[in-house]
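Run ABC transporter ATP-binding protein through structure prediction, thanks.
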Amino acid sequence: MIELDSALVTAYAPDPAGGADRVVRLLGPVSLQLAERRIAIIGANGSGKSTLARLLNGLVLPASGTVRVDDLDTATDGRAVRRRVGFVFTSPDAQIVMPTPLEDVALSLRRLPLSADERDAAARCALARFGLAERAEVPAHALSGGQRQLLALASVLAAEPDVLVCDEPTTLLDLRWRTVVDDLLAGLDQQVIVVTHDLEAAARADRVLVVDDGLVVFDGEPAPAVEHYRALMAAVRA
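Sure, done. The structure for ABC transporter ATP-binding protein is below.
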C-alpha cells in the first residue's frame, strides 16, 4: 500500500522584486492511503497532479511529511521503492534511452539476476506481449508515437513492479492509440494509478482524486469526482 502522511512539496522561486528566493508550496499537505486497484488523478494543468504522481515512487521527495510504499520510505529507501513502483511519463521520448526496443527493455532488466541470454529472451518476451516483437531491433525513433508509448510500458513492466504510476500516458496519442493504451492498462494485474485529462478513462477507475491548487479537493467515486472537477472548471470560466 502507498501511504502519504502530511506530505508537503515546496520549491524555491525567485523574488520578482529581486530579493532572496522565496519558498512556494507546490503540493500539500496531503494525507492518503492508496489501496484500490485502479485510481485516477484529475485536475487542471498546474494543479499539482503530476507532482502528486511523482511523490508515489520517490521521483519527488516531500519537504515534510512522509510517503511510504509497503512501509518503505521514499526519502530513505528510494531504490527499493522504485523496484515496487514503476513510472511511465507523458512522452515516451523522456523514457526511451537505448537505440532499439530490445536494448531498451533489456536495460530495465539489468537489476535482475539474469544472464545475457536470459535477459535477451525476457526482453523479447516483453516486447511480444505488447505487439512489438517484429520491431525489436529497429531504431526506436522509427516507431510510431503509439508504439513508443507501448515500448515505454514494456520497459517498465518487464521488471514486474507491484504498482504502475502513469502521468498522462495517452495525452500525446490519437484516438486509436489512446484506446489501445487504455485497454492495456485496464487489463494489468498491477495496481495502476493514472494522471489523466481523459474524463471517460477516469470514470472507469475505482477511485478518483481531484487536485486543485496543490490540494486534493475531492476523493471518492468516479461520477461525483468528475462532476466536482467539471464544477471547478466552470467556476474558473465564469
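Residues 2-98+160-237 form a domain with the Rossmann fold fold (CATH 3.40.50.300).
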